[in-house]
Design brief:
The complex is a heterodimer of chains A (193) and B (650).
Chain A: E1 3-10, H1 15-28, E2 33-36, E3 47-54, E4 68-73, H2 76-81, E5 86-95, H3 102-105, H4 113-123, E6 128-130, H5 132-139, H6 145-155, H7 163-173, H8 176-192
Parallel strand pairs in A: 1-4, 4-5, 5-6
Antiparallel strand pairs in A: 1-3, 2-3
Helix pairs in contact in A: 1-7, 5-6, 5-8, 6-8
Chain B: E1 3-7, H1 8-18, E2 23-26, H2 34-46, E3 49-50, H3 56-68, E4 73-78, H4 79-95, E5 101-106, H5 120-127, E6 131-132, H6 137-154, E7 158-160, H7 164-167, E8 169-174, H8 177-183, H9 202-222, E9 229-232, E10 261-268, H10 271-280, E11 296-299, E12 301-302, H11 306-314, E13 316-322, H12 328-339, E14 345-347, H13 362-369, H14 388-391, H15 410-422, E15 428-430, H16 455-466, E16 472-477, H17 478-494, E17 500-505, H18 534-540, E18 545-549, H19 554-566, E19 571-576, H20 583-586, E20 591-594, H21 604-609, E21 614-617, E22 620-623, H22 632-636, E23 642-645
Parallel strand pairs in B: 2-3, 2-4, 4-5, 5-7, 6-7, 10-11, 10-13, 13-14, 15-16, 16-17, 17-19, 18-19
Antiparallel strand pairs in B: 1-8, 6-12, 9-11, 20-23, 21-22
Helix pairs in contact in B: 1-2, 1-6, 3-4, 4-5, 4-9, 10-13, 15-19, 16-17
The structure holds iron/sulfur cluster (SF4) (2 copies).
One iron/sulfur cluster (SF4) is lined by residues 407-408, 592, 609, 611, 613-614, 623, 627-633 of chain B.
């Protein structure tokens, strides 16, 4: 299997862990994998993008424009921001829970949330829209958004990797004391879609 | 061996372990920080030493001293850190080393998290030191090992230049842990032998300078084959020379004559992968007219071998140079072409095939190869269809999402305090490098200058001299204070320039991932150590007005700030509260909530503080899940509607 997945979100949502889980799961399944992360200043609530490239060793670290076959968006406006990277047959999973930046709260640049959602529904009619935030809160807090999204993306086969490889990767990467809660969040995400 | 997913930085760290590194030093800086962090996790297990040094110059000198005795050492920093270490590096190149010494200087084209786009290779050229530039994590591991070998073979430091997309990209790598283990089974023999060669003197400098020039020739010959140089001429590789071959594009070669290709590609670092992806064409991205058989000249080490480069260029009518950073390879090729009297046209960042600024990607490479002269960042991806639904309507305006200080960040409180105390007097606020640079955003608007590490204290003095009546407040963090703030502080005292120096002491080096520093009381080996207190340092250096305040106590802090502003001489105030991200480890504070019964919805809390946990929910002010309980919003609320809560509603 060869695919390119884009994970879009806001700094602090755990996109880096999500992309490392997917890439590790790919390696567990015997496939080559590359990722590229946003680490540094943008991690303080800025826009973050993780590129995950699976199944081809002859690729660069970044997904070229219009080439992502899967989009996992942790935040709706960030899904729109990632549109330029998407293949026309992209399969998308989008968390509908918005994160309003401080600039919007201050009234400097508004967040047109309804327009963003309407646009996503029209531009990506096949996209799976979920309130992953609500599930994450149920699972113990918004910090579980990433594993909820992973569970949902695995169930919809946007991440087309064996479930066992993904669970194994979560075990490899999540520290022991948070492991159980994260696996629960993954399962709850899998129920979502 | 099992493959595992490693960041480029983790691969470099493992390369050092596979080379049997003994001493690891560095100063944190994006995108380099994870190298030392990874090594710190392995240090006690394998038995080598790691430290976060006080700054890059100290880090390099510690590593050099160890190497004089035969230890293998590695020192890491970001590209601007090399400016700080350069004083040591320029002469260390003359002096040389004994144990292998690798200087990792991570460049940040873009830039993503840096104040400039400087190219480490330019420093290497000035110092006449070799540079290795890996393209992916697997090669990063291998070239790190090679760098140690080279350094020992030639007795000079070797520079490793990763760039952001390598440092923060990951790939599958296999690690020979047994080999790593065996490196440490027999301790390396280390002893410093007294010799005049370790003492730089003008007479020695001259000799060593000549030695470096001579050695450069040797590096060139050494760099004529893999893993340092990878050349591929299609016909020599048994591939039919399709792309851009002379067929139809120029005079046919005579019998027995070599083909002259229309275009060859010269690339280095991460760009090699962009080129290969585009050429593989499997991506469907490349709108290249022919097949994929371009001659390739892949550079993984500098200085490049002039003869090999000339031989390559001889085979190409044009070459496209694809490199991150400044057009150094491109310029070098131009010099070689001139020397060998070649008519090859060399293009890249200098002639507008690529923009001279910013980082590259596969789309830009594809565009350059498609023959367009465009400089813009638009790509040939335009030729790939997008779905009808994507085209149906224009995108909505998106919210602007700049990075911000965390919820409960003590810097937010500090900037609010000084804003209240000093801005009414037209004060100038000089800023520095760290999370607190983010205090520039509205509503705090508390950074009027930012230049480089430690410059807040010293720029402030110049501003004060020019406008003596205007208060000048200089801000820097605890780690920056130790890195390069102290000499600036002494300069203010020595020259009696009455600036107000504020140390934002959050007990960590936050922006780069919470590294220890001399103020924390614990070093990277996990040992309890002396806590160097900026207050005591300031007093010892002769600052007369020295105070510590808790920035979460707004009124007391504003009073102290006002007092400092009244004080006629230089003053230093330490604002001390741990970074909000440290709460994860130390247990959280109580959270705060808005009492909607009494809240007048005036929005003063939001407008004054801009904390990301303060949001509007159905029009009403609300505190969300990310609140870490600093409590300053409760102090600015005029109606007393914000209070601590136990549980949190969402
Ligand atoms: S107490 Fe107020 S200012 Fe502090 S983190 Fe919570 S919401 Fe933000
Ligand atoms: S400042 Fe106080 S009264 Fe005003 S909106 Fe905020 S919480 Fe309500």
């Amino acid at each position: 299997m060869k695919t390119d997945l884009l994970i879009a979100g806001v700094g602090g949502q755990g996109t880096v862990l999500a992309s490392r889980v997917i890439a590790t799961a790919a390696i567990n399944a015997g496939l080559p994998a590359f990722t590229s992360e946003t680490i540094g200043m943008a991690q303080r609530e800025g826009c973050v993008l993780s590129h995950v490239r699976i199944g081809d060793s002859n690729v660069g670290p970044l997904i070229p424009k219009r080439y992502a076959k899967g989009l996992i968006a942790f935040e709706p406006a960030e899904a729109v921001r990632a549109m330029g990277f998407l293949d026309k047959n992209v399969r998308a999973l989008i968390n509908t829970r918005p994160i309003a930046p401080v600039t919007a709260t201050l009234g400097q640049a508004p967040y047109h949330f309804r327009e963003v959602l309407d646009y996503l529904r029209e531009a990506l009619p096949e996209a799976v829209l979920v309130d992953a935030g609500a599930i994450a809160l149920e699972a113990g807090g918004l910090k579980f958004t990433n594993t909820v999204m992973l569970g949902a993306a695995a169930a919809t086969r946007i991440i087309d990797l064996p479930r066992t490889s993904l669970l194994q990767a979560i075990e490899q990467l999540v520290p022991g004391k948070y492991l159980e809660a994260n696996i629960k969040a993954f399962e709850m995400g899998a129920q979502l879609s | 061996m099992k493959k595992e997913l490693l960041l480029g930085n983790e691969a470099i760290a493992w390369g050092a372990v596979l080379a049997g590194v003994n001493v690891v030093t560095g100063y944190p800086g994006t995108p380099s920080s994870e190298i030392v962090a990874t090594l710190a996790d392995l240090a006690s297990d394998y038995g080598f030493y790691v430290e976060w040094s006080v700054n890059e110059k100290a880090a390099l000198e510690v590593a050099a001293g160890a190497s004089y005795s035969g230890a293998r050492s590695i020192v890491t920093m970001k590209q601007v850190g090399l400016n700080v270490a350069a004083d040591a590096m320029m002469t260390l190149a003359y002096i040389g080393v004994k144990g292998g010494l690798v200087i990792v200087s991570a460049d940040d084209p873009g830039p993503h998290s840096s104040q400039n786009e400087q190219d480490t290779r330019a420093y290497a050229r000035m110092a006449k030191l070799p540079v290795l530039e890996p393209s992916d994590p697997e090669e990063a591991l291998r070239l790190t090992v090679e760098a140690f070998e080279l350094s020992e073979k030639f007795s000079v430091p070797v520079i490793l230049r990763p760039t952001t997309r390598l440092c923060h990209g990951s790939g599958s790598v296999s690690i020979d842990r047994e080999k790593a283990r065996s490196n440490y089974s027999v301790p390396r023999k280390m002893s410093f032998e007294r010799d005049s060669k370790w003492v730089i003197f003008p007479a020695l400098s001259r000799r060593r300078h000549q030695g470096l020039w001579d050695m450069n020739q040797e590096f060139q010959s050494h760099f004529s084959a893999p893993p340092f140089l990878l050349t591929n001429i299609p016909e020599e590789a048994g591939i039919s020379a399709g792309a851009g071959s002379t067929a139809g594009k120029g005079p046919a070669p005579g019998p027995g004559a070599q083909l002259r290709y229309e275009l060859g590609i010269v690339c280095c670092g991460v760009s090699r992968r962009y080129v290969k992806e585009v050429l593989a064409a499997a991506t469907g991205v490349a709108a290249i007219d022919n097949d994929t058989a371009y001659p390739m000249f892949e550079v993984a080490a500098f200085p490049i071998n002039a003869e090999a480069a000339a031989a390559f260029m001889k085979r190409c009518r044009r070459v496209l140079v694809v490199e991150e950073g400044d057009p150094l390879l491109e310029e070098e090729l131009a010099l070689i072409a001139q020397k060998y009297q070649l008519d090859t046209v060399i293009s890249g960042r200098k002639d507008g095939k690529f923009s001279p600024v910013g980082e590259l990607n596969a789309d830009l490479v594809s565009l350059a190869l498609s023959g367009s002269e465009m400089r813009s960042t638009t790509t040939t991806a335009q030729s790939i269809p997008i779905s009808d639904t994507m085209q149906q309507r224009p995108q909505p305006d998106l919210p602007v999402r700049p990075p911000v200080l965390c919820a409960g960040c003590p810097h937010r409180a500090s900037f609010y305090i000084w804003g209240q105390a000093a801005r009414k007097h037209q004060a100038i606020f000089t800023g520095d490098i760290g999370c607190y640079t983010l205090g520039n955003a509205q509503p705090l608007d508390a950074v009027d200058t930012c230049l480089c590490m430690g410059a807040s204290f010293t720029l402030a003095q110049g501003l004060k001299l020019a406008e003596p009546k205007r208060p000048v407040v200089a801000f820097l963090g605890d780690s920056t204070f130790f890195h390069s703030g102290i000499p600036g502080m002494i300069n203010a005292v020595f020259n009696n320039t009455p600036i107000k120096m504020v140390v934002l002491d959050n007990r960590t080096t936050a922006m780069t991932g919470n590294q220890t520093n001399p103020g924390v009381g614990q070093n990277l080996m996990g040992k309890q150590t002396v806590t160097v207190d900026p207050l005591a340092v300031a007093k010892a250096c002769g600052v007369q007005f020295v105070r510590e305040v808790d920035p979460f106590d707004l009124s007391a802090s504003i009073a102290t700030a006002s007092e400092a502003l009244q004080y006629p001489g230089p003053a230093l105030i330490v604002m001390r509260q741990p970074c909000a991200t440290l709460l994860k480890h130390t247990g959280s504070r109580m959270r705060f909530a808005v009492n909607s019964a009494t809240c007048t919805n005036c929005g003063i809390c939001i407008g004054k503080l801009g904390c990301p946990a303060l949001v509007r929910k159905e029009g009403k002010v609300h505190i969300n899940d990310s609140c870490t309980g600093c409590g300053i919003c409760a102090q600015v609320c005029p109606s007393g509607s914000i209070a601590e809560v136990q549980a949190h509603e969402n």
